[in-house]
Amino acid sequence: MARFRTYLALLGSATALAAGVLAPAQSAGARAAATAEYRWVALGDSYTAGGIPATGDVYESPRDGCERTDQSYPRIIHRALGALVDLTDVSCAAATIENVTSKAQQPNGRHLPPYSEDPDYPFPPVPAQAEAVGPGTDVITVGVGGNSLGFDIVGRCLLLGEGSKGTGTPCRDELAAGVPGRLAAVADEYGRMLGALRARAPHARILAVGYPTVVPEDTSRCRYGDLRQFGSVTPGDLDWLRRDVLGPLDTAIEKSADGHGASFVDLSASSRRHSVCDTDQWVEGILDHDGRPALVHPNAEGQRNAAAHVASALLNAVGHG
User: pLDDT tens digit string along 147-193?
Assistant: First the structure.
């Protein structure tokens, strides 16, 4: 019992979880496979894998193009709770719900022309992530859905906003009619994914991880034309993205989780004052502050915040919260 109280104490803050416990936890992590009490499989897209320079170094060797980084929330949690959990992390940047459930994925790595060329590209396909889940799995975390909805919407908003010189809502005008159908499809896919995971691991606790706040409620904080924020996306389209696209995506994930016996891990409330346009950013803009492609992804602070909330939910799931 004293050991479990120690684990709980690690959750006092994201900083403690991410930094203060790493030194003592590393040796425990090395013994995890032999002594871990719970088998944890982490599934998801780049918001889980890490996948941008701000979230550390890619640790897989040889690289498989999924861009799992050492400062992503699964790795942070595993370093802290290594003696309690045996982590299998198969998250992969750009993954869709289908890539989790049934379809092999060909990862891109950091091949993002014209911004960057990856010398190891093209990468071989990786199996559907659900193949890592089995009857012995105790906990599943899954953070996915944005690529199925179509994060390409933001790219289209960039182009349309540049053409309108920052005025109006050109992206909403072009795309809004199709968004409800996209959201409905995501909700349906997400539910079927949870059912498939439950079939593979009937006794596992499933944690559906939502997305952090990306666009602030007050979009006057966002500077039009600044690629460290949303570049040429117009203020009106940013309001539309927050209200009618990103917020409803999180709601769809939460409702699907509730309807399929999974627990929803909310990251939006805790990150509300740390959007792309806030001074204390937990999500980078199109470019990070060093001018590298970030493509609106959590930075190290954002991953630490996710680690604190997912770890708390994980401990609750296995009865030690």
Answer: 999 988 999 999 999 999 999 999 999 999 999 999 999 999 999 99
Q: What pLDDT digit, counting tens, does each position of 117-136 carry?
A: 999 999 999 999 999 999 99
Whose tokens are 């203020």? That residue is: 235
Whichever domain contains 264, its CATH number is 3.40.50.1110
CA distances from 318 to 44, 86, 138 (A): 20, 13, 8
73 is written with which tokens? 């929330």
What's the rounded Cα separation, in Å, for the pair 193 and 61?
Answer: 29
Residues 183-218 as b or e (16 or more Cβ within 10 Å = b):
beebbebbbbbbeebbebbeebbbbbbbbbbbbbee
CA 140/CA 275 separation, integer angstroms: 27
pLDDT for the residue numbered 321: 61
Residues with Cβ < 8 Å from 225, sequence gap 6 or more? Answer: 166, 231, 232
Q: Domain limits at 100?
A: 2-317
* Rounded mean pLDDT, 278-284: 97
Total structural domains within the chain: 1
Write the burial class of residue 310 (CB in 10 Å: 0-12 exposed, 13-18 middle, 19+ buried): buried
- Is the distance from CB of 208 to CB of 256 less than 8 angstroms? yes
Give the pLDDT confidence of 188-227 residue by residue, as tens digits.
Answer: 999 999 999 999 999 999 999 999 999 999 999 999 999 9
